Amino acid sequence: MVMKPLFWLIAFILFAPASAWSAAQPQPLALQIHPFLPSLEIHRRFHPLSNFLSQTLNRPVRIRIATNYAEHIQSFGEGSAQLAYMGPAPYVKLTEQFGAFPILGQILVNDSPTFTGVIAVRANSALGALRDLRGARVAFGDVNSTMSHWLPRYLMTQEGLKRSDLADLAHVGNHMNVAFGLLAGEFDAGALKQSIFKQFQSRGLRALATTPAIPNHVFVAAQNLPEEDVSAIRAALQALDAPDKRFILQALKPSISGTHPAVDADFDELRHVLRTTAAAPW
């Protein structure tokens, strides 16, 4: 008689359907990130954040890196992940294609909710202004990148430049590839965000032009994520503003100083820039 409870417990463990166990286990969350850097570097930078969220939410948070910016937008809109880290232009395109998404928080860089990019040249380049890019070889990053495609293209179209005015325009995938291509002499000018430019400036780069300031990157929740999960993740991201936890966000970029509440209307000016750029002759 004493052994019966133990017998039934062992029987349950051995023969209970997997669904009975999976229902008791918290389901993992996927944090999807666009490939703005090489994959290994993205994993290294986001690992402290995924660990922190896993511990705080009491469920695994796994990193998923999209194959390119377009896949990042499309797959997240279709439900490939529960969370996403998105640049401003991809966020705008996401909402245009799929509707509204809950914004979980926006990063602050040096206490600012906005950032800029540059069109850079080598320090010894004879190019002195955007108009000098006629006949030049130019490198952009991904075709959906904010600072490595849309904003520099906006600057160039405002100067009356078209793609046909250039000797070559190549999309090389990410910001670091732009810097490497410039330094290697493969291109005469290239577009990249300010933080990557500063990283390589001392190696021989110079800013030719600076983009307008636009909203920083945001963390976004899937449309079908339950409200209690959205609230819990928002609270977890806000907790990273504490001095003893700020290193987690600074692993993404040392100049990140915290997070900031953001709303969709913050991106309206960028929407205007993107529409203007898309409509301009190119």
Task: Describe the 3D structure.
A six-stranded mixed sheet has the order 2-1-3-12-4-13. The protein folds into two domains: 151 residues, D-Maltodextrin-Binding Protein, domain 2, CATH 3.40.190; 95 residues, Periplasmic binding protein-like II (D-Maltodextrin-Binding Protein, domain 2, 3-Layer(aba) Sandwich), CATH 3.40.190.10. By secondary structure, the chain is α/β, with parallel strands linked by helices. About 2% of the residues have low confidence. It is globular. One of its GO terms (cellular component) is ATP-binding cassette (ABC) transporter complex. One of its GO terms (biological process) is transmembrane transport. Belongs to the phosphate/phosphite/phosphonate binding protein family. This is Putative phosphonate ABC transporter periplasmic phosphonate-binding protein.
In short:
The protein has eleven helices and 13 strands. It is α/β, with parallel strands linked by helices and 282 residues long.
Q: Supply the helix-strand structural class.
A: alpha/beta
Number of domains: 2
Return the CATH class of the largest domain. Alpha Beta
What is the makeup of the main sheet? 6 strands, mixed
The CATH topology of the largest domain is given as D-Maltodextrin-Binding Protein, domain 2
Order of helices and strands: HHEHEHEHEEEEHEHEHEEEHHEH
Shape: globular
Mean pLDDT across all amino acids = 92
The oligomeric state of the chains shown is single chain
Count of DSSP-assigned helices: 11
How are the strands ordered across the major sheet?
Answer: 2-1-3-12-4-13
Query: What distance separates the N and C termini?
Result: 84 Å
The CATH H-level superfamily of the largest domain is: Periplasmic binding protein-like II
**How much helix, percentage-wise, in residues?**
40-55%
Total DSSP E strands: 13
